[in-house]
Each structure stands twice: as C-alpha cells, then as structure tokens.
Write a sequence for this structure.
C-alpha cells in the first residue's frame, strides 16, 4: 500500500490498524502474508438505524467511515475482481478504473482483475463482448482521457445471467461504477448472490455528473462539469453582449436535478435566468419567463439564460413520453423549445433580438476530469478497494460531511438528491440572477 496514502487515510479516518497483506519476498516481489480465516464473513452494510432514519426523513448523522481495515476477507493471491461502468459517461471514469487496478495490485497484491465491456451487457454471453485483463500497464495512461476504456451501456440485463457470469469467472469482488440505475441493478445482483449463498462482494462507486445521488454529498465529475459549463456560459455572455438585444441560451445536463446549472450560474455570475427541474416557472404572464426576459433586455440590452434539461417539462405534457433502454424518461428538448418560444414572443411584439443557443452537454460529459476530480476519484476508488477486500458488500463508497463513508446501497437506491427550492443554493441563485419574482411565485415541481 502506498505509505503516503496510508498515512493520509490514517489521519483522516483515525484508523488504528491497516491491513498489510503484502510483504516483499526475498526476490523483491510482493508475496501474500494473508491467512484466510474461516470465521470471517461478508459484511452487509445495511445498518438498520441508518435505514430507519432515512425512512423517517431524518438525515443520518454518520455512516461507517471508509478506509483500510485491519482484517481483510479475501485472499489477495486468489481473489478475482471485476469492474463494470454503466449508464451515461462522466468525467473521471478512467481515473476510477485506474485507481482500482493500482490499489488492488500494489496495495493488496491482487492479480486477476477483469474489465467488463459495455456495462452490464458485458456479462451476457449473447453479446460476445470479450473481458479485458486489467493490469497496471493496461491502465497506465487512461486517466488523461474522457469516457471509459471499458465502454458503457444502458438497457436491462438478466440479473441471473450476470451472477452466472460472476460465478463462471470466479469473481470475489465486483465494482459497479454507475448512477441510480446501476445502483438498483447492484442491489438486485446482491439479492441473487445472497440467494445462491455466494461469497461475492458488490461495491458501488456512485457516478453521475448531475450530482443527484441520494446520501452522496459529491459525485466525481461534477466539479469538472461545472467548470466546463461555466466556460459555456462565459461564451454565451460574450455573444449576448456582442449584439443588440443579445440573448445567450445555454442548455446543460440535469435530468432530475439542476445542480450543474445552479453551480455554474453562481460561478459565472452573468446569468439572468436559471431554469431547473425542481422549480416551476410560467412562460406567459407578467411574472412569466418571456415578459421578464423582455424587461431585462429593455433594461440592460442583453441576457443569459441557463436551462437544465429537465426544466419546464410540464410544457410538453400530453406529448409522447418515450423511454430510453434503461427505462429513463426521454426528455423533450427544453433548449430548442425555449429558442423557438423566445423567437415567437419577440416577433409577436415586433422587437428584434439576437439569440445564440449553445448546447455543450456531450462536450462536458465526455471531457477528462480536472485535477480536483482526479484526486477525488483516486480516494473513492481506493476506498472502494479497501471495502471490497475487507469483505464489505451492498454498499456505496460515498462522500458525506467531508468524509469518505460506506453508504448502504438500500439507503440510496430509488431516491434522488434535488435542489431544495427553499434552501441556500437556490436562494443564492435567485440573488445572483435577480430572477426571484419569476420563480418565487411558483411551487416546487415535486
Ligand atoms: N431497476 C433496475 N433493475 C435492474 N437493472 C436496472 C434497473 N434500473 C437500471 N438498471 C440497469 O442499470 C444500468 C444503468 O442504468 P442507467 O439508468 O442507464 O444509468 P445510471 O446507472 O447512470 O443511472 C442499465 O443497464 C440498466 O438497465
Ligand atoms: O444522452 P444519454 O446518454 O441518454 O444521457 C443523458 C443523461 O445523462 C445524464 O447526464 C446522466 O444520466 P445517468 O446518470 O442516468 O447516466 C442525464 O442528466 C441526462 O439526461
């Protein structure tokens, strides 16, 4: 184990003892000193008290702290591990894969590490996706690239077949890197493992640039996404001030939660309107978006509008509601909608505008992680390895109140973190944009 990292973890987490399964043999190669102990059992992180608090709507004061444990469950010389990345891309996926491989190899002396191609589909024989052997050499340079070297996918896969594959490959620890869908799938994989009485740990690493995973304070890639979104807003502002009655309209990702839009608007305070899924707004009327935009143009001559993709979906009610392969509702394009509504409105009042629409969504999502996210990914991944090697299962490695912690999968699955319309973040957005009259008059969407 990297002594520097170990020290940091000891200081941060106050761990008294550190697992040290690897020692150097006479020829300098790592050798496992771990003696399997029959009494050791896989530990389900399913703390009843935490789940009960969440059921009652009380924020849990703490979770079990993440970090290396004094006893490990799996024999590093025998255990095989698998990594799978699922759902939409996110900056930092390759950093996570790389850090898992390096910690397993150099921290614990594990040799058999497999990469599953194209998400959960990679477990299913009919797709014929080859498994990748993940070695330090294989992952050496991947952290500089966006996306995931393993590939990803959406779409339902048979849980029985996934566990069959884990059995066939003799996998002891499965690392699932994904969002709320992956979390649901992971809990079902855990159920099937338990039903079959297998000794397989499933450790989740929460992934979503939307930063909306429940009971996870910060998800990797979010900071990179905000940075990139801020650059797009800056461009929109430059374009808007460059022409008479210039309007810069930026659409950002955020299916259910507008965290990227809210944070980026606060980072680049040239934004006049932030539209998020959590807060309703009207188009027409005195306090409606279009009239408020007109007032802003008459007052200052330019405006910047930032819309998260899940905002204003009520305007499409009654239209076809399609779903993607994973069952997520396909959203109507709020950016294109606002673009045409703005054009229609100003045409109707005979006022000339210059509108520039920017949609940087996929440029943001496929970007490599920034330095802070690089560091964050490394800690998340290494803590996931510690949890897995210690025989913990059915948990997510999360970041909660400035600590890396073990979040029971069941505490997070099926729920979502959203902007509180009465909370400090949204208040700050309203103050920074001056849009209070437009969105304050309306209720939250849920
Ligand atoms: N309720 C569920 N049960 C089992 N598998 C699920 C469930 N929801 C999603 N999945 C699977 O998890 C994978 C990732 O889900 P998806 O929603 O696409 O992305 P994300 O994990 O980023 O939310 C997909 O293969 C999807 O079919
Ligand atoms: O175009 P795609 O691949 O369907 O992904 C779009 C979705 O990706 C996200 O950024 C993240 O979604 P997931 O967490 O489900 O992967 C959503 O905000 C957005 O709706």
């Amino acid at each position: 184990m990297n002594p520097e990292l170990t020290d940091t973890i000891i200081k941060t987490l106050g761990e008294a003892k550190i697992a040290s399964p690897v020692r150097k043999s006479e020829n300098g190669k790592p050798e496992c000193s771990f003696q399997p102990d029959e009494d050791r059992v896989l530990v389900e992180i399913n703390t009843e008290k935490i789940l009960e608090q969440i059921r009652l709507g009380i924020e849990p004061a703490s979770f079990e702290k993440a970090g290396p444990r004094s006893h490990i469950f799996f024999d590093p010389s025998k255990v095989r591990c698998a990594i799978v990345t699922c759902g939409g891309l996110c900056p930092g996926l390759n950093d996570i894969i790389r850090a898992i491989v390096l910690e397993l190899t150099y921290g614990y002396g594990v040799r058999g590490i497999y990469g599953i191609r194209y998400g959960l589909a990679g477990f299913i024989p009919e797709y014929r996706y080859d498994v990748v052997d993940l070695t330090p050499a294989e992952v050496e340079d991947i952290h500089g690239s966006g996306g995931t070297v393993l590939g990803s996918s959406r779409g339902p896969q048979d849980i029985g077949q996934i566990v069959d594959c884990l059995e066939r490959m003799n996998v002891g620890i499965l690392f699932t890197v994904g969002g709320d869908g992956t979390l649901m799938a992971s809990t079902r994989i855990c159920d099937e493992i338990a039903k079959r009485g297998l000794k397989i740990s499933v450790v989740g690493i929460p992934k979503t640039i939307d930063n909306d995973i429940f009971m996870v304070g910060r998800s990797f890639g979010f900071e990179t996404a905000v940075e990139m979104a801020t650059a797009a807003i800056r461009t929109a502002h430059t374009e808007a001030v460059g022409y008479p009655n210039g309007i810069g309209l930026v659409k950002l990702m955020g299916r259910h939660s507008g965290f990227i839009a809210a944070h980026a608007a606060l980072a680049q305070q040239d934004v006049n309107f932030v539209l998020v899924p959590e807060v309703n707004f009207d188009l027409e009327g005195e306090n409606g978006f279009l009239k408020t935009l007109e007032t802003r143009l008459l007052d200052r001559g330019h405006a910047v509008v930032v819309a998260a993709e899940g905002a204003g979906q009520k305007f499409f009610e009654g239209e076809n509601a399609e779903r993607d392969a994973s069952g997520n509702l396909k959203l109507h394009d709020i950016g294109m909608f606002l673009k045409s509504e703005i054009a229609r409105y100003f045409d109707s009042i005979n006022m000339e505008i210059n509108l520039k629409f920017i949609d940087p969504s996929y440029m943001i999502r496929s970007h490599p992680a920034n330095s802070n996210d690089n560091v964050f990914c490394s800690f998340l991944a290494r803590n996931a390895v510690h949890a897995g090697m210690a025989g913990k299962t059915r948990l997510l490695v999360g970041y909660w109140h400035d600590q890396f912690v073990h979040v029971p999968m069941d505490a997070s699955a099926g729920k979502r973190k959203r902007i509180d319309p009465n909370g400090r973040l949204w208040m700050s957005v309203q103050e920074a944009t001056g849009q209070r009259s437009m969105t304050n008059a309306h209720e939250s969407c849920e």
About this structure: The chain has two domains: 18-220+369-400, 223-366+421-433. The chain has 15 helices and 16 strands. The pocket of adenosine-5'-diphosphate (ligand 1) is lined by residues 86-88, 119-120, 153-157, 178-182, 184-185, 188, 208, 326, 328 (CB under 6 Å).
